[in-house]
Write a structure and sequence with these properties.
Layout lengths: L10 E4 L4 H12 L5 E4 L4 H8 L3 E4 L12 E4 L8 H9 L3 E3 H9 L3 E6 L4 H14 L5 E3 L11 E2 L5 E5 L14 E4 L13 H13 L5 E6 L3 H10 L5 E7 L6 E9 L2 E7 L6 E5 L4 H16 L4 H8 L8 E8 L2 E6 L4 H14 L5 E5 L4 H15 L4 E4 L16 H9 L4 E3 L3 H11 L5 E5 L7 H13 L1
Parallel strand pairs: 1-2, 1-4, 2-3, 4-5, 6-9, 6-10, 7-9, 10-11, 11-12, 12-13, 17-21, 18-19, 18-21, 19-20
Antiparallel strand pairs: 7-8, 13-14, 14-15, 16-17
Helix pairs in contact: 1-4, 5-8, 5-9, 8-9, 10-11, 11-12, 13-14
Length: about 475
């Protein structure tokens, strides 16, 4: 069993139920640490952590921080006035950022760090599942559950550690991967980045952390990724492998053929011998994620002929085009898409599996800052749906910005001729979208907030209507 990082044998996590925090907590618990933490509300993830032996308190209070805690782990979402964080300062307990904790867990392993504005969770999951299928027992930390709550992380017996590398707060600068993946580079996280120039500088810093002799796998199709590759130039001790449909890609995607909700992918790894495999999720976007995962595995020395079919074992991750169920002839699918590029990619992917049915979107914008900067682009992306309903903005960690509402998105979509309407609340949204749906249609709940909770309610409404 890998050693517990120094001073992390009795950690306390503030916000332990979060996607990133819970994974680190689980790995530490599996390594034998006495894990404790708190979260605003109970959840299946919190219960899964308790099953691993962790102590999970509900709410945030000074008394939750044990006297013998050796460190307090926080994410960038934790505010300075959190009582447990304040108590740590008063008692002199070290405060460790989530990224530093994850970096410590990867020490001594062969890390693959998956970065990019979109697709990180899917690609990390593809690697975790395929490497596990091959019996390599990797450790991994993912920003979403593979299946059951708490399945976002694992402490494996193998030497590979696959991690999602988050650029939103520059925390991916802490990692030193043997293989880095960059799927795409776009302007996002507007509270932390003021320009594309800052984004490029941040990704260059991440690439500079790749271990000497390591490999960067980067898209040859995405404009931002190509510009980043140009800026990197010829770097000694770094192998750069490009992938995509572009003619100059080192790993070239020759074909992506849709077959319902799956895709058949054919690639050329540079040896002129086409390699075909199946991806069990729809859409070109996800097929290219699988090719990035394939290239990364090959960089670690895993034979492509073994890894490619193992990638077919990946059948999706929660909130990434996850089928929630069917009722009255209508399929309800949940999507984490919240950036215009992601919205477009998921709507296009689902369009390929809709057949003669319509694609209906229930979209919840995420963050006021993102809506302020990209609201028009979100509205344009929603034109790819046959009809859409837009909820109020999910604020997450942000305070409201005057004048920034969902109307920015709705107006932009309507100006482009889209069938779009506002929902005055979640109850109304469920009734609206369920009322639109007809047999054969696909309904997508889309967004990074709590819109995911509405899928079961839509299904229940459809069942009542059917009966």
């Amino acid at each position: 069993m890998a050693a517990i990082p120094s001073a992390m044998d009795r950690p306390h996590f503030i916000g332990i139920g979060g996607a990133g925090m819970s994974g680190i907590a689980k790995i530490l618990a599996m390594r034998g640490a006495q894990v404790a933490g708190s979260d605003a509300k109970d959840s299946p993830t919190a219960e899964a952590l308790r099953a691993q032996g962790a102590t999970v308190h509900l709410g945030h209070a000074t008394g939750h921080l044990a006297a013998d805690a050796t460190c307090v782990v926080v994410s960038s979402a934790i505010r300075a006035d959190n009582p447990e964080l304040a108590a740590a300062g008063e008692r002199g307990i070290p405060v460790v950022h989530r990224s530093d904790a994850l970096a410590a867990l990867m020490d001594g392993a062969r890390p693959i760090a998956v970065a990019g504005t979109h697709g990180k969770t899917t690609t990390t999951s593809m690697l975790a599942v395929s490497l596990s299928t091959l019996g390599l027992d990797p450790s991994y930390a993912i920003g979403g559950d593979l299946d059951a709550p708490g399945s976002n992380a694992h402490h494996g017996g193998g030497d590979i550690f696959v991690a999602e590398a988050d650029e939103s707060d520059r925390s991916f600068h802490k990692y030193a991967p043997e293989v880095a993946i960059i799927l795409n580079v776009e302007l996002d996280h507007h509270a932390n980045y003021a320009s594309m120039e800052e984004i490029y500088e941040s990704f260059e810093t991440f690439v500079g952390r790749v271990r000497p002799g390591g490999t960067l796998v980067i898209s040859a199709d995405h404009d931002g990724a190509r510009e980043l590759t140009r800026r990197l130039g010829d770097r000694a001790q770094l192998n750069i492998v490009t992938y995509g449909a572009a003619e100059d890609a080192d790993v070239r995607v020759l074909d992506v053929a849709a077959h319902g909700l799956t895709s058949a992918v054919t690639v050329d790894l540079g040896d002129g011998a086409p390699l075909a495999f199946t991806v069990s999720v729809p859409g070109r976007h996800y097929a290219h994620n699988a090719v990035a995962a394939l290239a990364a595995g090959v960089a670690l020395g895993i034979p492509a002929a073994e890894l490619a079919p193992a990638l077919g074992a990946y059948t999706g991750v929660k909130r990434r085009l996850q089928l929630k169920g069917s009722a009255a002839g209508v399929q309800v699918i949940d999507s984490y898409a919240h950036h215009p590029t992601e919205i477009s990619a998921d709507l296009e992917a689902i369009r390929g599996g809709a057949g003669e049915g319509r694609v209906l979107a229930l979209f919840q914008p995420h963050l006021f800052s993102r809506t302020q900067e990209l609201g028009a682009e979100m509205g344009e992306a929603l034109t790819l749906a046959d009809a859409s309903v837009v909820l109020d903005i999910y604020p997450a960690r942000e305070d409201p910005i005057p004048g920034v509402t969902s109307a920015l998105i709705i107006d932009a979509a309507a100006q482009r001729g889209a069938d779009v309407q506002a929902a005055p609340g979640k109850d109304a949204a469920v009734e609206l979208i369920a009322g639109m749906a007809k047999p054969g249609d696909l309904v997508l709940t889309m967004g990074a907030g709590d819109v995911t909770d509405l899928g079961p309610r839509i299904l229940a409404h459809l069942e009542r209507t059917e009966s």
